[in-house]
Amino acid sequence: MGGITLRLQRSLNFCFQATNAEEAQLWLRDPVVALSRIRVFRDLKLESGVLSGYLTAPFALIGEVRFPFSSRFDAVADTAELLPIEPAANAERDTVAFLGGKARLQGDRVCYQAELTLELNLPEGQKWGGRAFRKMAEAAFERTLSHTLRELNSLS
Predict the structure, then answer these.
(1) In this predicted structure, what is the pLDDT of residue 145?
(2) Dihedral sign, CA of 144, 57, 100, 112?
(3) More confident site: 102 or 92
(4) What is the pTM of this model?
(5) Position 108 pLDDT exceeds 80
(6) Domain spanning 4-153 has what CATH number?
(7) Is 41:55 a contact under the CB 8 Å cutoff?
């Protein structure tokens, strides 16, 4: 696929406060329950040790953009780990997210230290108008996703 890939990488640190240690343990072992509490994550499912879903972000000119992701999930004792899975080499994709990191149980809280990469593919601008649109899209991509990810970091 030709064009330009816009990429945004961020470290995220956030915690969920449960009502008790048992509920926190449930949230640690089931990332669908935990991450569904964050409005930018949608259509989450955990099947055969793979967490998949979408991270969504609103863009003024084009509406909501969905970044699909898949991560291997493993929970042992008081920790859990997410390892991002690369999309198939032949997959046509305009957007993709890579979500990885660790979660730890801290009493009645579950705290995540995650790494998130978001990619948006745009067609190459051959003319002045196409290049100008690309510059505007790059600025909107950075601004919108930075705002969205700041919301995640503010959960602590």
Answers:
(1) 64
(2) positive
(3) 102
(4) 0.81
(5) yes
(6) 3.30.530.70
(7) yes
